[in-house]
Each structure stands twice: as structure tokens, then as C-alpha cells.
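Here we describe the complex-level prediction in full. Unlike the single-chain runs in Section 2.1, the four entities below were treated as one system.
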Amino acid sequence: MKRERIEEIAEILDKRGKMTLEQLEEVFPNVSQMTLRRDLFQLEEDGRIIRIRGGAMSVKEVQKVSGEEYTKKTTINTDAKIVIAQKAAGLIDANSSIFLDGGTTAMYLSKEMPDLKCNIFTNGIAVAMELAQKKNVNITIVGGQLMRENLSTASPAAREYFDRTNFEIAIVSATAFTPEQGFSCNSQIESELLKNVFTKARNVYMMLDSSKIGKINPYTFARIEDIDVLITDDHFPKEYKELFESKNIVVM
Amino acid sequence: MKRERIEEIAEILDKRGKMTLEQLEEVFPNVSQMTLRRDLFQLEEDGRIIRIRGGAMSVKEVQKVSGEEYTKKTTINTDAKIVIAQKAAGLIDANSSIFLDGGTTAMYLSKEMPDLKCNIFTNGIAVAMELAQKKNVNITIVGGQLMRENLSTASPAAREYFDRTNFEIAIVSATAFTPEQGFSCNSQIESELLKNVFTKARNVYMMLDSSKIGKINPYTFARIEDIDVLITDDHFPKEYKELFESKNIVVM
DNA sequence: TAAAGATTGTTAAAATTTCACACGGAGTAA
DNA sequence: TTACTCCGTGTGAAATTTTAACAATCTTTA
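The structure predicted for the assembly as a whole is:
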């Protein structure tokens, strides 16, 4: 019932390209507007249509298919993250090998980075999907159990995996930082994974937006000394900047 | 002034894909919302963007996202695939361990399956993301290099990975089938991976929509005898059904 | 410099979407 | 059967976004 209706809507939309809700109501007189809205919403989630004011249009109409959107968490400190991602994007050179974590900042980095021939390792599947849009990037995913909260994988087996893998730089982010506790995150296996990453990477770049400062999460995976470069936004406090620089860490 | 601003908006939008008016206001703090609206309106007339509720999205975004090939596939034979997925969904019991491939049929299966406490292994990241919406499913991703065309991973290392992993049933699909060549796919590493899966799985369920019949792809990964159950749609030819049943394979 | 046209800002009204809650049917277990 | 849950659905008010109209400002050119 629902399924069929949605399918039919998609078909009509693919055919006509674009329709208003009013028109849809004429086609489906026996359901309420709200139901049609919800159908459109679902179709949008599936990437088959784009909802526009007053109705929807087929994705095909715009040329070929598309889909996939990021989740709703994209509102938290978005701007800071984009700024950071842009800075980090400048660090990616052709032919380099890079580890990227699965966080939302890495997600933005994936969008912002140039489409260069390079190798990227990641444990974030959303990140991987985003990267898949680049034509030249070679993507490798670290396997393991999937954590729902952040769409990242982690597994004890990752260690052996890294034994066979080389990368020059690691670009990661933390969900919390204090000078005393260092960089921390919410998952123990993830923190273990990151520790492994650090032993393999020649240079560690930490992306940290200023909202993370002063927060503490259960699992510390790096101390200040463990990183080489800190990438942050414009609201990063001076005292902290000096703290990092006093330990010879570049703050950008 | 106006021209440049519009140009800049288009650029940013092409880059970020999507933006709200609010975000645009932050980027252009010295013009009013109405002006930005008018700019978007003009860009829409030029066919460069699509205005959506609350903002706009780049036309390029819609064209490129999700690597054309993949989503294109998702629209072919949708109905058959959903039917198949629903049948397969009935096979999933609580506490079972299941391998699922990364194909589009598996994608539908992920949508259709009940939210039971079970373990699912997959090499498809789109499948994994879909599954992540279930509360109770424990998801494990097989790591390796990501193939753009189907958003699946595969790697020679997967073999060792499977050595430490157990699952009762494997539910996979093929992109081509003939009685002579058996089930085949487009990627050699993927075919290797599936062969490994078959050695571990106690039961193999093959999902095959009837449009795949008579097609041949480069890499055969299973013969008729290798599977236990064939899940297909209503258009599956009788001769084929009898062929399978003559070899003691259940056709459903 | 004046006048016309383009661009922008401001406000209220109109249109659309979202949200929250309620209802009824299908399925399930006691 | 009865009670209970889950899912799809309907409803109306609230919130948000868009439109439209007009005033203010800036540009250009005669």
C-alpha cells in the first residue's frame, strides 16, 4: 500500500520531472497531503527525488541519479568544521598515503579535498562514501565492527591490518580535549585503533574545533606531544595556542 | 557587485553541494536575506542551482553524487528486487550470523529485514549504512579496497579475515547467470571474496532477479550446485526453476 | 545635476512545512 | 477473545520560509 504508492509517485515524478503537491493530491485523492509529504520525504531520503518548495522534482530530471545526504547532526559548529577541513585539504598532495578517521570533520575534509591521485585509508564508511565521488582517490576501508553513533568501524584485528599497511600522515579529530587528559573519544576500540594508527604514521595532524576544548571523554588516545600539527578554527584560545607551540607543535 | 556575489554563491554551492539561507547569510553578512534570495532565484533561472526549502543546492551535486553507476542500478528492476528482498527478509532469524554482499538487492534486503538481534557481515558500505538504522543488528564490515562502481570492498586479506569469522548463512546476489557459466560478477577480487564466503557459510542463498538470466559477466564465483536456495521474482522462467530443483535447490 | 533605471532593504501577508498528538487496523502473545 | 504494540495515517496549530509591494539607495547617462 505505502510501498506501491511511493513507487508510483517516483515513477510519475521521473516521467514528468517535477510536480507540485497540489498535482500529487489530484493523482492520489484518497490520501491526505501529509501522507504524500511523508512519501516525498522518504523518496528524498532514498535519493530518488529532491523536494522543492511546493512539491518535488525527480533527480533524474536534473541529469542523472543522485542520492545520499548526510545526517542531521550537520548543524553543530558546521562553519568551524568547514574552515578546519579547508585548511586540512591543503595538506593533501598527489601520491600521498593518508589515514583519515571517520568523524564529521573528516567528512567535510572529504568534500573539500582536491581530487588527486592518492591513497586514503579510513575507518569511517560515511567518509568512504563521500570519497567515492572523487575519481582519482584510492580508498581503503579498515574493517571491523560498525559503531552506529559515528558510522565508524573498529576492531582489535585492525592492528594486524595496519602491520601490512603504510601511510605517511594521519589526519584525525578528537571529540574532547583538555591539556591534562589530552585528546579523548567515546569508544575504547576506536581509541585503540587510533593509537595503532599513530605508530604507523610519520606525521599526525589533529583537527580540533574549539568547541571541543575543556571537554573530557572516557578514552584518551593521544597526548599533546603525540601530534605534529593542530588544525583548528579562529576561536581557538591564545593560551592553548601558546601551550601547543611551546611543545613545538604547529598550530594552523 | 551583484554579478560577483552571484558568481561566488554559485562557486560555494558547487563546492559544498547544499547550503541553507542562514549559512549564506553568514558568508555574506553585508547584504540582506532578500538580496540573497534574489540571487538564488537568478541562479535557478540560469539552471545552475535548485532552490530547496531553506536554501539551495548545486545542480552539479545532484549530477555527480553517489557515483552515477551505483544509483543508476538501484532504479533497474526495482520491483523485482523488493519482492526478492522481502522473501529473503523472512529468512533472517534472531541470533543468526549472516553474510550479506554489497549489491543493490542486499540494499533492499537491509531496508526490509526485521530489526532483530543478529550479526551481519557485509562488504558493502551502502548496505552497512542502511543496516545502521536498525537498533539491534550487529554489523561487521569486511575491510579492503573500495570499488566505486558498487561501493563494495574487497581485498585479498579478506581471506584471513574470514578465518576468524563464522556465519551460518550467506545471502548474496549475482549480476549475471547462465546454466553453463553459473553465477558471475564484474570484479575478480569480489569473486574471490565470495568464494571464500561460500567455504565458511553453512547455507548459501542466492538472490537473482530474472533480468540477470542469460547474461554473462567475466568472473564466475559459483555454480548451480554451490548454492542451497535461490530467491527470485515471479518472472523466473519455469525451465530454470525445474533445472534448479532437479539439483535439489530450493527455489523461492 | 537631474532623471531613469537598477539594486537593495524592510515589512507584512501568504504559502508551505513541520510538529505533536490521536485514531484505527494488522499482527502478536497471553 | 482481549489486551497490547507497531505502523501508517489524518488533523490542526505552530513555526518557518517565501512572496510581494513599496521605499530607499546607488549608478549611469544625458
